[in-house]
C-alpha cells in the first residue's frame, strides 16, 4: 500500500515538474513500544496547484474529486485513491502547494513490530537507512539546464 501511495505521489510530481527537482523524504515521526510512525514527504518544484482545487483533490469519487482531477490532468483521481489507502493504513495525508512554485504532499503511517521484536537502534550518525534519508529525483527542462 505504501508503494502504491508513493507511486501516485512521485508519478504526479514528476509529471508536473518540467524543471527543478522532486524529493522523497522519510522521517521517523513517532516511536512506541509497538512500532513506529513514519512521515513521508514528496516535494516538487512543479507548477503547483491553485488554491481553489486543493481542497477537492482528496475528495472521494462521486464528489469534487473527479472534477478536480479533470482540471488537473487526472492527477486528482489518483490522489483520492492514495488518500483512501493512507486512511486504510490508519494514516493521515495532507498537502501544501503554491501555484508556480511547487507542492509538498505528506502522509504518515504507523508500522507495527512482530510480537517479541524490538526496534533497531541507530546511534547518532545518519546512515542511508536512518530516518532522515532522502531521495532526489531531478528533472531537466527542455533547455538542458
Provide tags for this entry.
single chain; 145 residues; alpha+beta; 5-stranded antiparallel beta sheet; 4 helices; 28% helix
Describe the 3D structure:
The chain is an alpha+beta fold and 145 residues long. The chain contains 4 helices and 5 strands, in the order H-E-E-H-H-H-E-E-E. The chain has a 5-stranded antiparallel beta sheet, covered by helices on one side. Strand 3 and strand 4 form a beta hairpin. The relative contact order is 0.24. About 14% of the residues have low confidence.
CA-CA gap between termini: 35 Å
Helix content bin: 25-40%
Main beta-sheet strand count, sense and barrel state = 5 strands, antiparallel
Give the helix/strand class: alpha+beta
Strand content: 25-35%
Spatial sequence of strands, sheet with the most strands: 3-4-2-1-5
Order of helices and strands: HEEHHHEEE
Give the overall shape, derived from the CA principal axes: elongated
pLDDT average, as an integer? 78
Whole-angstrom Rg? 17 Å
